[in-house]
Model the fold of this input.
Amino acid sequence: MPSERTRRDLRLLEAIRVAVAAHEGTLRKDGRTPYIVHPVAVLRLLSSELGVEDPDILCAAVLHDVLEDTEYPEAALRRKFGNSTGELVRELTVPAELHGPSVPDRKKTGHLVREIGRMSWPAVLVKLCDRWDNLRDAANAAWSDEKRRSYAEQTRQILLAFDARWRSSPPPARLRALLKAARGGLGAQLLGGRNPTRSPLRGTGANPTRSGGVGPRGRAARERLVVRSTGRPD
Done:
């Protein structure tokens, strides 16, 4: 019988396969990079940088844009990966009416700020890493200076909402170090991307074992899993 880790990794591999197929033919904002690189990058931030092991969080990271940007049915996603993963992906899905260049930035910012205040803490963790990777990619996106400034300000508002929620209703203990690390990584990226390859867990007091993390062998195995399924190391 497969071990718990093997079952978890097989489930994650299936999530990657679904995301690869769903996003096939779609490119990132630079017009060159296959879109799948982004959800895999969010997965790697959570797994390799932060040490997250929770299978629902990791699968949701890979699948977080599937309902928002593709025709993949929500019922099929829930049937294949379970309601816990499905609910996380639903929480991370921005409504269709908030997409497109005609939607004012302030309207989308208001939605994102409200969502940070009410979505589950695991969903917030994925959202921070999603934003972290998007901010890294913004340097290569075909954006105007005004768009870059607007995106940076939107990110700042998200971080302020996160901080306000933390003060009023702190997350469960098992997620605090991970959320603090994700917030630190996103904040550093906003300020100029200092130390982008340094683990944001350093200096937070986080213990990867106690925080549901993985050791070096586990991280290496998961990165091999990602590379095998996408053909890309990044």
